[in-house]
Amino acid sequence: MLRTHYIKDARSVEGExxxxxxxxxxxxxxxxxxxILRDRTGLMQVTVKKGIVADSLLENFNFNREDVLQxxxxxxENKIAPGGIELIPSKVTLLSKVERKLPVDPLDIVPSxxxxxxxxxxxxxxxxxxxxxxxxxSALARSFRQKCTExxxxxxxPTSLVGAATEGGTDVFEVxxxxxxxxxxxxxxxxxxxxxxxxxxxxxxTVPVFRAEKHATTSHLNEIIQMDIEIGFAxxxxxxxxxxxxxxxxxxSAKKMKEEFSILNVEVNIPEEIKKYSYDHVIDLLNxxxxxxKWGEDLSKEAxxxxxxxxxxxxxxxxxxxxxxxxxxxMPKNGRxxxxxxxxxxxxxxxxxxxxxxxxxxxxxxxxxxKRGLNPLDFQFYIDAFRVGAPPHAGWSIGLERITQKIxxxxxxxxxxxxxxxxxxxxP
Length: 428
Hints:
alpha+beta, CATH 2.40.50.140, BirA Bifunctional Protein, domain 2, 2 domains, nine-stranded mixed β-sheet, five-stranded mixed beta barrel, 13 helices
């Protein structure tokens, strides 16, 4: 390794160190020259002064911003340096030189448009804000795995290539699979259900999914990361209880990243209680507050915004939706078939998760497909899987980019995907 320490860790080290990073700033005031060296953990002042270092080192100590260096030397106290410590170098190696004008300013002195920053994402990531966002996103994904494992779930890795549209829709990306047609998976839905039917009982996964929908909103992408669970011998209330535990753990874990949230100027609140509101109650609330909506309609963005104002809570569930507006595999409520055991989880005004108790009875599945004008024969493989002993089961999915967007208070979800894919963007 070229480095012995990251900058943050080096501050507590005595003796010689080797640090690597980018030239954040460079100053030349004659007999004294400074580099502020940056790596992903922080900044370190590198000071070259006549009479303290070799003359040859002083003469050759000239760099441009964003040049890449390895600096070997000894750390000394300096109260006016960043962090109260500076590095006196014995050797400086130029690893890579900037050869063109930077299209994005890593110091954020000159702001850039989002499209420009995404075109040059590899430079944009050197800025403090994207670095903070993706550190928080990493913590969210890690804490999701931690809590699911703690709750006794087994991690699985389903395929992203499927032979048919996994949710029965048409908005799929078609790929050539040798002599056959295949599709990029819209959802791991079928496969996590098959694992529960196979006796794995409690499974979770973090997977990419692909949706060929021609939208252009600030909360949709065509490739996203889903964090899913599926649990056997359970209904939608069991699934919501697990989601609440996992969500609270994720938010609590992320909140510990005080430096990153300080960079973003965001304060994280952890809900003391996450309430459950039935769809029936939600419709009543909206109508009582002069937002006219009929029972059976899906909630528009305007309706969700109004509801968020009425309820006034960061996080809440909406459960037991009209069967007609949910996926065909959502279990109808016993004794009230026009309602199904499906739910949405709202966080800061945006749906970040949805789930349901699934239909595990083949006859009911066929009936729901027919009611939607779909041919059960087109779903034969899916239906047949339930003919060999399928337990009642339920599950949900959290959109990793969406929860990251809301917890970091970003206006556009593209800020929360390293290399976002939408209908207009396929590079870099």
